[in-house]
Specification:
The chain has 3 helices and 4 strands; from the N terminus they run H-E-E-E-H-E-H. It has 111 residues and is an alpha+beta fold. It is rod-shaped, with a radius of gyration of 29 Å.
Length: 111
Amino acid sequence: MHDLPPDLPRLRTLETWLAYTLDRVRQQIAAAERREAERQRGEQARPPEPDWLIEQGLSGRQPVYVHVGGCPMAGKRSRGVERDRALRALAEGVDACTHCRPDTELGFMEG
């Protein structure tokens, strides 16, 4: 680093600028800490992922697929259901997702 100026007025100016800069850095740190705390609270408050999903068709009336909860292939029209409802849907002819295989997970046997 370069030598500091020898005279008092420039040293005071430098001190003022450094104090101002340090204050701005501390404000940014505090803001980042608040954002991180909020993100963590959001994760803790998130409801648990459902074990089973039923994906509705475009009309929103007919179920088209049964998924294991968390399946990346489940569309936006999916909703969480209980195990019994997922089994009933498979028994009623709703297709099992070929990616997550809920029929295997549920022990569902056709016929």
